[in-house]
Amino acid sequence: MKGIGWYVDEYNMAQISFNLLDFDVTPVHVAYESVVEEAKKLGLAVVGSEIVGLVPKQALMQAADYYLDMEGLFVPDEGQRVRLAIERLGLNSCSSFKPEERVIEYMCKDDSEEPLASLSVRDFVEELGARSAAPGGTFCSSASFSIYPSLSLTHSLTHTHTGGSAAAVMASMGSGLGAMVGWMTYGSKKWENLDGTMRKLIGPLHEAMMEMIPMIDADTDAFNDYMAAMRLPKQTEDEKKVRHDAMQEGLKTAIRVPLKVMQIGDRCWPYMEEMAKHGNMNSKSDLEVGARSLEVGIWGAYRNIVINMNDVEDEDWKREIMEEADSMVSRAKSKVDVVLNTLDSR
Question: What does the pLDDT look like over 120-140, one tens digit per residue?
C-alpha cells in the first residue's frame, strides 16, 4: 500500500490518498479505520472517503463483514451489505456512490444471462403457458420479448424444461417464505428472546433462495445444450459417435440442474422445521405455503430427473443419481408434514 496526504481546497479538508495494490492484503476498511485512529490522536474527525474508478465487489463485502461483526448486526442480503459498507466507509461524502456504476461485477452484469429470472411474474407465467418446450425463446434487451415455436421433437426431453424452471421457482419461493417468517419474528420486542435463533435460521434459507434463482435459467440452458448436440452432423460413424456422446452428456447436464435444485432445497428442511417451532405464528400460513412450495419444487425437479433419465446409458451413474434423488424426494414428502403438523400443534 502506498499513500500520500495533502490539503484539498475544493473540499476544504485534508485528504490522504492510497493506492491499495492488493485488497486481500490491505482491505479497504483496514486502511480507512487506520486513518480514523490516527485522526483521533490529533483530535480530528474523518468525514468520509472516496474510491477513484471501479472497485471489486469482494472489497466492499469484506468491509461489510467487518462492520457487521463489529456492530453485532445481521444482514444476509447482498445489496444491503453493499449499502452498509458504502455508508460505513463514507463513500457518499464527496460524491454519490452508485453500486451499479462503480462495482465491477454489477457493471458487467448482463440480465440476458438470466432471461427467465429477470422477467416479471406476469411475463414468466405467460411464458410458461406459451408454445415453447424450453421457456425463454429469444429475449430482447427491453421488457418485451419474442417467442419462437420450438422444434418438433419426439424425445422426452422436449417436454420437461418448462416444468424444470417452474420447479426451481417453486423451491426458491419456499425457502424465501421460510426466511420471510424469520424476518417477521426477528427484531420484534415480543420475540426478542428468539433473535439468536432467527439469525441461525434466516441466513441459510435466504442463501438457498438466492442459490436456486439462477437454476430457473440453468434448467433451460441445459436443454439448449442437448438441442445443440442433436444438431451435430451424423453422416459418418465418427460423427455419429461424437453426436451420441454429446447427447449423453447433454442428458446428464439436464439432470444435474434439477438435482442441484433438489440438493439446495433438501438443505432447507432442518431450518424450516425449526422455524415452525419458533417462528411468528401470525405468519403461520406463510410458512405453510413455503413448506408446501419447497416440497412441490423438489418433487418437480425429481420428475424432471426421472423423465430425462430414461435415455441415459451409463447405468452406474444412473443408479447413483436416482438413489440420491429418491432419498431427497421421500424426505421432502415426510418433512413437509412435520412442518405443517408442528405449526398445527402450536
Answer: 767 766 665 664 544 443 333
CATH class for domain 2-108?
Answer: alpha beta
The residues of the chain that CATH labels 3.30.70.670 are: 2-108
pLDDT above 90 coverage of the chain, percent:
51
Pick from 179, 178, 196: nearest CA to 187: 196
Report domain 111-345's class: mainly alpha
Q: Which helix (H) or strand (E) holds 182?
A: helix 161-185
| Cβ atoms 89, 49 nearer than 8 A | yes
Query: Three-state SS string across 286-324, please?
Result: HHHHHHHHHHHHHHHHHHHHHHHHCCCCCHHHHHHHHHH
Q: Kindly indicate the confidence band of residue 183, based on its pLDDT and cuts at 50, 70 and 90.
A: very high
Give the pLDDT band (50/70/90) at residue 17: confident
CATH 1.20.120.680 domain range(s) in the chain? 111-345
pTM of the model: 0.72
Within 10 Å of residue 281's Cβ, how many Cβ atoms? Answer: 14
Distance CA 42, CA 33 (A): 15
